[in-house]
ABC transmembrane type-1 domain-containing protein (Dictyobacter kobayashii), 140 residues
Amino acid sequence: MENLHDLILPMLTLSLGSIAVNMRQLRASMIEVLNQDYIRTARAKGIVERRVLYLHALRNAILPVLTIVGIQVGAILAGTFVVESIFLWPGVGQLAVSSILAKDYPVVQGIVLLSAISYMLANLLVDLSYGLLNPQIRFH
């Protein structure tokens, strides 16, 4: 925890672009969902506005954002190579860059395999979370 301040700039570099895209999509989805009939029905029943927003609206509006997050995992994995090189942060990205420059192909292949597996697992988690967030999308 003593070097937590060293993580701030790399984390901001990797996350700011993704956060902007996700918030824009979430806003558009929330506007669309809040105009649906079931939201008006929930409000007419007298359900507290906070509960309507979080339980009814957000659960349906978050699905497109989850799809984007699953796709962005690949961009973030690729971005770590550059960010770790720029900020001289030792990690898999720095190892990949140094292995490419040293022509150490088995290490490069291992890192590519690790990145591909990470990307597939992230997309699997996104797909499984659809069923949790929206009961209409259950896996049979």
